[in-house]
Amino acid sequence: MIARESLPHEHAMEMLPWFINDSLLGDERAAVLDHAQSCVMCRREMKSLQDLRDSINCLSNPLPIPEPDMRNINARIDRLINRQNWARRSMSWIGEFFASPWRAAYVAQSMLLVVLAAALLWPATRDTEYTMLTQASDLADGYYVRVVFSPDLAHSDLKELLDELKLRIVAGPSNRGVYTLATENSIVITERDVALASLLKNRSVLFAQPVN
After folding, report:
1. How many domains does the structure of the chain reveal?
2. I want to staple 167 with a disulfide (CB 3.0 to 4.6 A). Which of 67, 81, 112, 181 is the partner?
3. What is this structure's pTM?
4. What is the domain extent for residue 154?
5. Measured in whole angstroms, how far is the alpha carbon of residue 94 from the centre of its chain?
6. What are the C-alpha distances in Å from 188 to residues 143, 185, 193?
7. Rounded to an integer, what distance in angstroms lies between the CA atom of residue 168 and that of residue 161?
8. In this structure, is residue 38 part of a structural domain?
């Protein structure tokens, strides 16, 4: 018999496994329980042993295996058999159809007529129209510059750059982002060349080329 008030810590720790599996009875069980209520270490060990016991109990109870749904299995088997039978019937029908040389010739002739009709009725492909970068389109006689600016260039910065170089937009941007620029006096080549040199030095200009 163990006195409840005199149970030492080491003894209580040794008795915890027996407490968890319900092997302690009477005063021994009560003494261990009283000690654990005032001992943090024993409570933690008791909790750890309880979790271990619960885990073992879960593993020892096999999970039920669900019964197979025979209706779904039979339906899948029926669909598979139907597909196989359809493939066999199709191959048999094709074999019987082409067994006659007259039928094979008729099918070949029909396919040839379809191909010829498609070739005659299909619209002809139009040649792509190309426009050279240096080609002047609907511009008055003079000296111009074709320019491609960086896509990161803001509209306000573009306007400021054009004002600084005394350039104006006479065409563009095209679908490829090409601008056609002119000086204040587009018939003076020296003004155009000075503006072109400044554009080529600008980091926001990806491409610049003179156009007469």
Report:
1. 2
2. 181
3. 0.36
4. 144-211
5. 44
6. 7, 6, 9
7. 10
8. yes
